[in-house]
Specification:
Helix 3 (about 85-95) runs parallel beside helix 5 (about 125-135), helix 6 packs across helix 8 (about 215-230) and helix 7 crosses helix 8 (about 215-230). Helix content is about 40%, strand content about 20%. Strand 7, helix 5 (about 125-135) and strand 8 (about 140-145) form a beta-alpha-beta unit. It has 11 helices and 11 strands. The chain is globular. The chain is α/β, with parallel strands linked by helices and about 290 residues long. The strands form 3 sheets. Strands 3-11-6-5-4-7-8 form a 7-stranded mixed β-sheet. A two-stranded antiparallel ribbon has the order 1-2.
Length: about 290
């Protein structure tokens, strides 16, 4: 909850890891980063609704320098919520919200829409929304990832992003140490920033939130979950060769831990890499040659 200028937790708060100072980024900074990384695509998460709110979240994935090297971060930079509109009216509102920004429209590569909006009929809600968007050069929505346990897994993925901490070389958040989580949110997105600390753990279901009622926050969190779970990002990892070389260097620094067996395995690994792929016959011949030596 928001109390006297500070976020305070509450009993049963699902995203207990949420820290506003490590999450919120000024919108002007978002615009600057997106302009610098102009090749970065935009992905959209949508939770459709007529009785409930229909919520749209615009997101991108950028690379930022940290003390541990370059790292990928999700940035949610815009949002929209409407209620009681037809599918065509809702699609029109999405286009209106982008205010004819052709650059933004062209950068959208994926729109993850509520799975229930799709179906076998020729005029599903997803089809009607997609037709309007395509007419204006925007990609057609695809179903958000839907599988067994997708809801708890999606919420868990959101929690993980919010709980990560990295020190940015160029501070962008209000954290005094320059820390940032893996999911940055523009200060323009007040609906999402209010929904995250609002979520309360379901006492009867593991890794889920209470979802009874028509609270707008539920629809906002669903839109976020559709994107986060459908568009999982993986951090670049070192090649196996580099990892092994690093391990050897650490062993050499510590003679007590270093062993002839470990060094022999390292040399054998290096020899195999230099020789490249070989047939079984070649491998047998070379093995026999080494035995004779």
């Amino acid at each position: 909850a928001w109390l006297e200028g500070l976020w305070t937790g509450h009993e049963g708060m699902f995203f207990s890891c949420f820290d506003k100072d490590c999450t919120v980024i000024p919108h002007d900074q978002v615009l600057r980063i997106m302009a610098q990384q102009y090749w970065t695509p935009v992905m959209v998460g949508i939770d459709v609704g007529v009785v409930h709110y229909a919520v749209v979240l615009w997101n991108c994935v950028v690379e930022l320098p940290t003390l541990r090297g370059k790292r990928k971060f999700i940035i949610t930079f815009d949002e929209m919520a409407v209620k009681g509109q037809s599918e065509r009216g809702f699609a029109g509102s999405i286009l209106d919200h982008m205010e004819g920004n052709r650059g933004l429209m062209d950068r959208i590569t994926k729109i993850y829409l509520s799975p229930e909006a799709f179906g076998e009929a020729s005029r599903t809600r997803a089809r009607v929304i997609g037709d309007v968007l395509v007419e204006q050069g925007v990609v057609r929505p695809t179903p958000a990832k839907c599988e067994k346990n997708s809801r708890p897994n999606g919420l868990s993925a959101m929690y993980t992003l919010l709980s990560e901490r990295n020190i940015l070389l160029e501070p962008l958040t209000d954290d005094k140490d320059g820390m940032a989580c893996d999911w940055l949110i523009s200060d323009k997105c007040e609906l999402l920033l209010n929904a995250i600390p609002w979520a309360t753990s379901d006492k009867d279901v593991v890794v889920d939130i209470e979802k009874e009622g028509n609270a707008q926050q539920l629809d906002v969190l669903d839109a976020a979950r559709y994107f986060v779970f459908s568009h999982r990002i993986t951090q670049d990892e070192k090649p196996a060769k580099d990892v092994m070389n690093d391990n050897i260097r650490e062993l050499v620094k510590s003679p007590v831990m270093f062993s002839q067996k470990a060094y022999g395995e390292y040399l054998e690994h290096q020899r195999q890499e230099q020789q490249g792929p070989q047939s079984k016959a070649t491998a047998w011949t070379r093995g026999r040659h080494r035995e004779r030596i």
